[in-house]
Write a structure and sequence with these properties.
238 residues; alpha/beta; SIR2/SIRT2 'Small Domain'; 2 domains; six-stranded parallel β-sheet; 9 strands; elongated
């Protein structure tokens, strides 16, 4: 790598959080395997039985609150501190591990577990507390309209205007710990590549959109990403 980059976009998925222990949600006894998606992650489910949906996310918050960033998250902070470029993080994860690690310019396209949104007035606020259908919006005063600020199936992703702008202007695109299956995030590499970015994939194994990347770095992100960052920062032109 000898190119001096000006705009770097890092897309992260579940794989980067797994090394902080959050893969347990999808394990055999994990939280997601105890509930049907249709019952906890659709707007129809929320309208039908809001307290059941609230209970699901109430149960999830303590573990995400306690989770700590790993070496991959910290490597992004190092990159942002040492490399002279605009560096943005676009994450599919609803945890706050990027923020805990000190990452800046983080865009949560699937929402955040520590946020609530009022379906009546659109007010968004942060809280790690438990909620129910009896809670009232602090801004508009309407009860039973607070929803976890998580993008449910069928809802539009968040921050997409910003993300599109970043992808069109970036010259280095890194995909870390994402399967490359779920769209539109799986198509981000294609947009970045179309506008001239170098593209790197960090994953444990080959993914379905393997051909879209210029290079593939396999192994735990907590090992591979810090090594990559060290090399990139060492090449900064003095």
């Amino acid at each position: 790598m000898t190119r001096q980059y000006k705009n770097i976009v890092i897309l992260t998925g579940a794989g980067i959080s797994a090394e902080s222990g959050l893969s347990t949600f999808r394990s055999e006894d994990g939280l997601w395997n105890k509930h049907r998606v249709e019952d906890v992650a659709t707007i129809e489910a929320f309208i039908r039985n809001p307290d059941y949906v609230h209970e699901f996310y109430n149960e999830m918050r303590p573990e995400l609150f306690a989770a700590q960033p790993n070496a991959a998250h910290k490597a992004i902070t190092t990159l942002q501190e040492k490399y002279p470029a605009q560096i943005s993080v676009v994450t599919q994860n609803v945890d706050t591990l990027h923020e805990k690690a000190g990452n800046k310019n983080v865009y949560h396209i699937h929402g955040q577990i520590n946020q609530m949104v009022c379906l009546n007035c659109g007010h968004v606020f942060e809280s790690w507390g438990a909620f129910s259908s009896e809670d009232t919006c602090e801004k508009c005063g309407v009860t039973a309209m607070l929803k976890p600020n998580i993008v449910f199936f069928g809802e539009d992703l968040l921050c997409m205007n910003d993300v599109d702008r970043l992808l069109r202007s970036c010259d280095l695109f890194l995909s870390v710990g994402t399967s490359g299956v779920v769209y539109p995030a799986a198509g981000f590499v294609q947009i970045a590549k179309m506008f001239g970015a170098d593209t790197y994939e960090f994953n444990m194994e080959k993914t379905s959109n393997n051909m879209m990347f210029d290079a593939h770095i396999y192994g735990p992100a907590g090992t591979t990403l810090p090594t990559f960052v060290d090399k990139l920062t060492a090449e900064v032109k003095q």
